[in-house]
Amino acid sequence: MSSPEPTSENPGAPRVTRENVMAKCDYFTRVQLWPLRSVLDPESWLKNFRPNEQDHAVHLLNSFMYFTPHLVHEMFAASVQALSRFVLQPGDSRITAQSAWSTFLGSAIIVPVAGETDNPSDSGYSFARMARQHLGFTEGQIMPPAKALAALMAAPHPVIFVDDFVGTGEQFVTTWKREVATVSGSKTSFLTATRVGSTRFFYCPVLCTTMGFDRIRRECPIVSLNPAHVLTSRYSALSPDSMIWPQDLRATASDFLQTASRRAGIPDDGETTDDWRGYQGQGLVVAIHETIPDATLCLLRWNRNGWKPLMVKA
After folding, report:
1. Where in the chain is the domain with CATH 3.40.50?
2. In terms of C-beta distances under 8 Å and separation of at least 24 residues, what long-range contacts does 233-237 make, across chains too?
3. pLDDT of residue 122
4. Which pTM was predicted?
5. How far is 300 from 282, CA to CA, in rounded Å?
6. Span 84-93, mean pLDDT?
7. Where does the chain show beta strands of DSSP type E?
8. CATH number 2.40.50 is the correct assignment for the domain at 83-225
9. Which of 4, 26, 275, 314 is deepest in the core (most CB within 10 A)?
10. Contact 58, 188 (CB under 8 A)
């Protein structure tokens, strides 16, 4: 929901103020681009900050990006549909292209990206359900890692991993390399499966940071990574080239974030998901559907010590 800052190239752009940002927030809520105030409450969140912090807080709120369920559905569909460039050949006739694409979709296995242990609450599983409800994949095509690997041992299938958000890439790399017991009792991994057969692997997250993108490309080079949108360093509130801050606030932005976080009691340990910088120092300002990723600044989701969160983390 960012507004352009006045610059030498764009001198007529309006200055970001509390009034125009709150007006946009109210509008987004009225037209249902944002959820109800019980879920996302900018007015209460701004009250956390002292008068000398308001300018920074308003710009942080102005840059906050909330992806609605409808938008997430559309971005996810676009990510999967873009796999056609890996399947179709230049010069294919319409009939040949339709047949190849239909065969690909009908034979694909949909695998939700999971944590260290498979959990139905993992976001990857909600996107597997989305693949069935909105993209036409059958229930039988959606498989957890162990079942998918057993199917690959029997015959090659294209594999499409699905998820909402890639931050560090750690969760996908873990899913890719982790050895799991198949129904036959043997242990194998997706990495091992690349050494036999002709299976092709694809990964279709909705959002992916450059940090996660680079790690997956480095550690899982055989996987065709196809996010709907890549978040570069400019989306981070901590980056020197951040798009969040105007020039006159950029030099003091980190001090503002750290000072406010310390007052709220947010940890400064550089390791946990509740570190004030966001997990692994990513400093993002995004929320997807029902939750805020750990990579998002903790100031936006913290709800302890009397601090009012911008959005409640599901």
Report:
1. 83-225
2. 235/209, 235/284, 235/285, 235/286, 236/282, 236/283, 236/284, 237/60, 237/63, 237/283, 237/284, 237/285, 237/297
3. 55
4. 0.88
5. 13
6. 87
7. 65-67, 109-112, 159-166, 180-181, 187-188, 201-209, 224-225, 229-231, 286-288
8. no
9. 275
10. no
